[in-house]
Every structure is written in C-alpha cells, then in structure tokens.
Amino acid sequence: MNAPMVHTPVIREADLADRGEAEAIEAFVAANEGEVFHRPLWLQAIAHGTGNSVRGLIAERGGRLAGWLPLSDVHSPLFGRALVSSGFGVGGGVLAARDDDARRLCRAAEELAGRLCAASVELRGGSAPADWTTISGKHANFAAELAADDETQLLAIPRKARAEVRKGLKHDLTVTTGTAETDRAAHFAVYAQSVRNLGTPVFPRTLFDAVLDRFGDDADILTVRQGELPVASVLSLYHRETVMPFWGGGTWSARGLRANERMYYELMTHARRRGCTRFDFGRSKTGSGPYAFKKNWGFTPAPLTYHEWSPPGTAPRNIDPTDAGYSAKIALWKRLPLPVANRLGPWIARGLG
Questions:
Q1: Helices marked H in the chain — which ranges?
Q2: Nearest 5°: CA angle at 286, between 284 and 289?
Q3: What is the pLDDT of residues 239-251, one digit of tens each?
Q4: N or C: which end of the chain has fewer CB within 10 A?
Q5: CATH number of the domain that 122 lies in?
C-alpha cells in the first residue's frame, strides 16, 4: 500500500482586494473560531482608517486554506516599522490547525519583515516558534457570561461596584445607541478628551468610521448624555455572540455622574437584547487602573501571552507607555489644550498599531 501523500503547504501573501479570497479567509476564520481581529474585515478597516497596508499571509495545503496570519504593516517616523497581528487590536496571531503550518507562517513573516526592513513581527496571541521572544504577565483579558435579565445582571456585579452603577442609574442621563453621524461625533469628542486626559494621542476618527462602515451591524456606539452633552461613549464590536467594548471613555464630569458605570451596565443589557451571551471587557495592563476597575466588576483576569521576533542586530520597536522613557511625554500630553491634542494625536497614533 502506498503511503499517504504529505502536501507541503504553499505560503503566500493574501490579496484582500480580491473579494473571493477575502470571503474565503472570513469563512476560514469563522470555521476555526477565530477572533474578530483575525477577520480580513478588521484589516481592511485598519488599512482604510489609518493608511497602514495589509500584509496577511496564508498557508494552502492541497489547494485548500490551512492557515492564516493577519498582518498590518504599521510604520511611522517616530516608532519605526513593524508587522503586527493584528494591527490596532488586542488579539490575533496565527490561526492554523497544524503546528507545522503555524511555524511556517511565522517563518514567512520573518522573511517578509526582512524584505520590508521592519524592526519586528508582533503576534498578539496564538503560537510562535520557540526561538521567538515570549511576552507574558504584562496584560490580562477580562470576559464573562451575560446574565439572563437586567436585574440579575445588576446583582451579578459585586456590591461596591453595583452601588456605583445604581448611582449612575439615579442621575438624569439619557442613553442612545447607533452609528449615525451624531453618534460618531459624540463618541469622538468624548474619546478624544478621555485619552488626552490619560496622556495618550487619539486615533484618527477615520479609523472609527472605517470600522463602523465595514462592520455594519457588528459594531455600534453607545453614548450617555447629560442633557445634550455627551459624557461617556463606547464603540463596541460584536463577534460570535460576544460584545466587546473596544474604544470607550468619559469626560471629567462623567466621574461624578458615574456615567462610565452606567455606560457599561447599559451596554450589557443592550448586548443581551441583541442576542449576545458574553461580555468581553477587553485587555488591560496588569496593575493598572482599568485592570482594577474590571476586577471590581467581578471579572477574573486571564493573563495574555504575546510573541515577538526581530531581525538579528535589530532592536524591536518600543511603544509601551509604561516605559520610563515615555513618562515625561505623557505628562506633557496631559497638559495640551484639547484642540492641539486632537490635531497632533491622529498623526502619532496611526503609527502605534
């Protein structure tokens, strides 16, 4: 009896401009329970919204798709160049059923980085060859199942955090959801102020618009207003019956109004009505304020492991805001007038990835 033929996979760059290829990869991601950041739709939105190009790699075995590595080619004069999986996301990495296919995709990413003179390949999840650098303990993710109804959801929040939510519910605030221009403008105004207050440059509004335009019903904005003034707002993604509040924040006045607490509770109830069963509170840096906030809501931290590779003799880029070298810059950014921060921020942030 002849031994079965073993097909060596063909590794090549994906052409997401080809609708058929993009749809095939979308189907592969769905069949393999990939993350939202594995979706070609995400890469396309990032490319359109930030100007960074898509460089995804696919493995084909026996003429069939066997592996996928979504890559954003992120570059800027301030931070250098990197291939990131996935750009501007908190997840990604190689999606493949076979370990050898995953390794081949990583090796192909090394070659691509060399041709592009990129300082590093960064995988936010998945597996990587043993000679890559593993980064763990810096971030954790927070996710939990949604409750069956509004009251049960409220009671599932630990007592101290629940008391803050109840204070927010007592204030005369209005809550809206949508993707219209009024929703987008309110979200950007709130989010830009929020990240400026944290000392972080804001992403270009074109990024938020691109995600909303491409994701359709799989993304929306929930905004909390005091009168006509938006005080808290979050842009959320929906994927595999899970809601992910991804870009959110509040103004200074949101604190006294408990508008952020109100916002996340309202999002939980809104997502359940949409058919979601899980709430993914997202990634936070270990030991940070958001990390503590999510723990106080009863979410259990799940440590995240990332991987990184750099060409020999090349130092990887450093975009870690907790690095001591950035402390003075962050302090300065917090003092910038908001119009100045909003003018400079998008130019800087589109190179972070």
A1: 19-31, 40-50, 99-116, 150-156, 159-170, 181-198, 205-215, 252-257, 259-273, 289-296, 327-334, 338-349
A2: 65
A3: 999 999 999 999 9
A4: N
A5: 3.40.630.30
